[in-house]
Amino acid sequence: MDPEEATTDPLTQVDLGDPVGTEPPDPVRPGALRALVAAIAVVVVVLALRPGQGSPASVEAASTTLPTTTSQVEPPASTSSPTTTGDIGDSSALGTRVDAVLWVGGDAPIARIDPNDGTATVLDVRGYPLVSVGRRVIYGDLANGDYRVIDDSALDADPSPITAGDGFRVDLIAPSATSGTVWVAERGDETTQWQLLSLDTNAPVRAVTTKSIRTTRVSPRLELARPPLIDEAEPGVFVSPMRDGEVIFRGSILADGDTQLLVETCDTTCTVRWLDALEAKLGPPIARPDGLLDRNEVHASGTVIHVRSEDLLQSNFVGVESGNILDTSFRTSDRPFAITADGEWAAMTGSRRLWLVELSTGREVSLSDIDGVIGTAASAVFASN
Q1: Which of 11, 89, 108, 162 shows a CA-CA span of 20 to 30 A to 129?
Q2: Quick check: 378 and 6 in contact, CB under 8 A?
Q3: Which residues pair with 327 in a beta bridge?
Q4: Partners of 66 in the beta sheet?
C-alpha cells in the first residue's frame, strides 16, 4: 500500500468516539468560585482593550490564501456547499496556457484549481475526483458512500448524487466518450450490468452486460472502472459488447486504456498492435514500445503511456511517438496524477503538494505546497474550462 494513502479509508466515515466531559465536575468551594469569577473579569477587560480580531472558526476549512503558512480559524462549515477562493501561488512560471482546470481531492476538501492564474476554489465537500464530463466532475463521496456530480457553472449548488433508477445499484463508474454521459456498473456474481447514463436526464442511453471488468485503484477502497468497450469473454478472447459479442482479438492487453489500448494479438503468430476500442478495430503490427513495465496505462488518446513496476517503486511516462521516457522520481500509487487531453501536462499529487510536469521536457512547476488543500491521499482530474 502506498504510504501516502495508508491513513485514509475513502468511503468510510470516521468514528469520533464518545462525547468528552460526561463525568460530573468536582464541587467548587465558595472562596475558589469568587477567585475564579474575578480572574474571568480581568480577562474580559483585557480582551475588550485589544484591537478587533477575526471571528473564530472551524479548523476544517483551511485557509485558501496559499502558500501562506499562518494558521487561520474559519467559520463553521455549512451544508449548502459554500466555496472560498484564494491564491495558490504564482503560476506565471508555466510559460504557456493550460486549456483545462484541475480538480483535486481525497481526504481533504475538493478544490478547483486554475493553473493559468493560480486561483483555487475550495468546496465544502470531501471526496476523490474521478471523471470529468465537460465542465462537470464526478467524485466518490466520502460521507455518503456514493458518487456525486459537481457542476463548475454552479459551484454554490449542492453536488447531485448519481442514481440509475429501477433498483440499479451503482457500484462503479467509468468515463464515456459520448458527450454528457458516464458509464455506471452494478457488479454481480458472474456478470456486470452496465448503463450509459445521461447526466442531463439521469436516464440510461443504452445497456450492456460483460463477463469481465477492468479497474484502476484510486485508493484502498475505491476503484475507477474502464468503459465496457471490450470484454474478456474467455481467457485471452476479447469481444465487443457493443457489437453483440463479436470477437475482436485473441491475445493479451499490454497497456490498458479507456478507448485506445496496446495489445498483443496471437493467432498464428503474436504481434503488437493498437486497438481502437470505440471502433473495435486493430491497427497494423508495430514494434513493441521500449520502457514498458509490469503495469501500463494509455492516456491522452494513445500519445502517452504511464508505466509502473508491480512494487510501485518505478513510475515513468513514455511518449508513444517520441519514445522519450520520463522518470516521475517518486513513489506512486495507482492513480496520483491527471493528464491533459493533449498529453502536454501531467498534474502530480504527493506529500501534500501539487505540481505540474511538462511531459515533453520533464520540466516541473510547483503550484504551491497547498497545505490544507491536498491531504495524505489524493486524486486529480482535468476538466474543461
Answers
A1: 89
A2: no
A3: 316
A4: none
| pLDDT of 261 | 98
List, in order, residues 6 or more apart from 227 with CB less than 8 Å away.
174, 175, 176, 177, 183, 258, 259, 277
Q: What is the DSSP letter of 118?
A: T
Which helix (H) or strand (E) element contains residue 366?
strand 364-368
Q: Provide the residue type at 305 as one letter.
A: I
Q: What phi and psi, each to the nearest 5 degrees, are found at residue 368? A: 180, 175
Cell 450492456 sits at which residue? 208
Cell of 169: 445499484
Phi and psi at 49, nearest 5°, equal -85, -10
Span of 24-38, 133-147, 263-277 with lowest mean pLDDT = 24-38
CA distance linking residue 172 with residue 145, whole number of Å: 11
What is the distance between the alpha carbons of residues 187 and 339, in angstroms, rounded to a whole number? 28
Could you count the other beta carbons within 10 Å of the beta carbon of residue 22? 6
* CA distance linking residue 348 with residue 357, whole number of Å: 7
Tell whether pTM > 0.85: no
Q: What's the confidence (pLDDT) of residue 28?
A: 38
What DSSP state is assigned to residue 320? T
Q: Which three cell numbers, joined as nine digits, stand for 265?
A: 494479438
Beta strand pairing status for 325-327 and 260-266? unpaired
- Most confident range (mean pLDDT) of 24-33, 225-234, 328-337 is 225-234
In the chain the domains, ranked by start, together with CATH numbers, are 63-69+78-383 (2.120.10.30)
- Using alpha carbons, select from 292, 300, 294 the residue that is nearest to residue 259: 300
C-alpha cell, 236:
485471452
The whole-number pLDDT of residue 272 equals 97
287-307 pLDDT, tens per residue? 999 999 999 999 999 999 999
Q: Assess whether pLDDT exceeds 70 at residue 12.
A: no
Strands (E), 2-90: 83-87
CA 302 to chain centre: 21
> In the numeric block, which cell numbers belong to residue 148?
456525486
State mean pLDDT over 258-278: 96
